[in-house]
Amino acid sequence: xxxxxxxxxxxxxxxxxxxxxxxxxxxxxxxxxxxxxxxxxxxxxxxxxxxxxxxxxxxxxxxxxxxxxxxxxxxxxxxxxxxxxxxxxxxxxxxxxxxxxxxxxxxxxxxxxxxxxxxxxxxxxxxxxxxxxxxxxxxxxxxxxxxxxxxxxxxxxxxxxxxxxxxxxxxxxxxxxxxxxxxxx
Length: 185
What we know:
By secondary structure, this protein is an all-alpha fold. It is built from ten helices and no strands.
């Protein structure tokens, strides 16, 4: 019976530690996998791994700790995955994006404004997808998850100078993609 109390305590501690960072974990997973369903699976696997090893967490930045687990889970799965024959990817540009309804709520009530807002978001999304993974990763962690250089260095397991260099190169490359092909085609 004491074992169940220990499990309940562990679950409560883990929930307090990890759940506030679920959105950041999903955001990183979505940009790493480039697919919302794969991102869900990745976050679930990462959180299971984090729960399993929660006793090894010794304090510090819980967000960076969890994002590191998400990142490592992704790269481990990528390394272990066998190329799948006949795999067809879903093209959001052709079939629509899941978040289109949110754009309507945030955009002006004018159809031209709605269309322009969707075009800009689609262009940025497509440009981000074209970035090499190492650049996309630091850009997403900095600009979307608002991590510090130190946190990004911890998550990506690279020196802070490399974070700054990759971030500068990612921004420059993203800008060149957007200037060269503003429609995102």
